[in-house]
Amino acid sequence: MAVHNGARFLPTTLASLAALETPGDGVQFVIVDDGSTDDSPSLLEDFVREQNSLDGRCAVCVRRATSEGLASALNLGIEHCSAEFIARADADDLYVADRLLIQLSAMQTRSDLAALSCGWRRIDENGQPLQTRIPEQGPDWLAFQMMFMNSLLHPGVMFRRSAVLSVGGYDPAYWTAQDSDLWARLVSAGFLVDNIPDCLVDYRVHTKSVTGSRGDKGRILSLTVPGRLQHAYLGGLPPEHDVKSTVDLYQGFCRMDPAEIKAGLKGLRRIERLAMTRETPDILQRFRSRLSRSCSLHARWLRRRAPLLALRLYIHATRWRTVSFSV
């Protein structure tokens, strides 16, 4: 775990970590204090002292005088980890007591996995539940979907230290999206990643989080990950290929203007044509089902503003839904 001025939520996070059930050979907590100037250092000092007094547990806190960013802090933490299996945690989230046991059992059973995440519950700043998320599963599907979105919750991941080190660890250039960049490099190197449906993390949503405060620059940086994956898949990006519109239309999280939708449709159809010759029927069905849902959603948003484009989107949605179910 890396901490930078996390005192507001740190006490409850540390309490949930202290309550974790541990394997028979114990657990090591490795925390990097990335230049905190609030009460985080004293809170971490108490936690380390308490854990080191218990059988089967040890704790290490590495402190930096100034912040060098999350990716760099996580790399430093990995250097101090002595175990092959590393579970990530964030300083503002909460963890189910048997998280380590569930993920470790799954990782030991599936020796081909480099990283394994889980389901999560979104909570607000006061810890009130907002929504439960059951993640999509299947290494082949998750690897394909990385061209459009990150499907692994970072603070819910357990990974193999050797696999992460073999691809160079976290890239410090990514002050945001450092997780999706790492998963993409693992998959590109031939490693498998997956999710389990178990809800093991209470993921706190607040304005001070990196994702919540990354802004336009962070968005541009994060798009370089699906951008390079689409580049590799297509064998180069045509000048007219718009990665952002392709990603946004696939995800269906935000409203897009007509020009962006048209560009996104072209990008998705370009990828679909190749996928028809490369992917399994299951991958194609899941891909097209996602496209159908997103096009239907955007069509509803546009039916008054741009009725002809909305009709076109409905036609695409129907075609993708029909083809998906007949594969």
Report on this structure.
- By secondary structure, the chain is an alpha/beta fold.
- It has helices at 10-18, 40-52, 70-80, 99-109, 139-145, 161-166, 178-188, 215-234, 243-251, 258-278, 281-302, 307-326; strands at 2-3, 27-34, 57-64, 85-87, 94-95, 113-123, 129-133, 158-160, 192-204.
- It is elongated and about 70 Å long.
- The model has no long low-confidence stretch (mean pLDDT 95).
Helix and strand layout, with pairings?
Elements: E1 2-3, H1 10-18, E2 27-34, H2 40-52, E3 57-64, H3 70-80, E4 85-87, E5 94-95, H4 99-109, E6 113-123, E7 129-133, H5 139-145, E8 158-160, H6 161-166, H7 178-188, E9 192-204, H8 215-234, H9 243-251, H10 258-278, H11 281-302, H12 307-326
Parallel strand pairs: 1-2, 2-3, 6-9
Antiparallel strand pairs: 4-8, 5-9, 6-7, 6-8
Number of E-type strands: 9
What's the helix count?
Answer: 12
SSE topology string: EHEHEHEEHEEHEHHEHHHHH
Largest sheet: 6 strands, mixed
Ends: how far apart?
44 Å
Molecular shape: elongated
User: Rg from C-alpha positions?
Assistant: 21 Å
Helical percent range?
40-55%
The percentage of residues in β strands lies in 15-25%
Poorly predicted runs are none
Average pLDDT confidence is: 95
Feature tags:
elongated, 17% strand, 12 helices, alpha/beta, six-stranded mixed β-sheet
Provide a concise account of the structure shown.
Helix content is 49%, strand content 17%. It is built from twelve helices and nine strands. The termini are far apart.
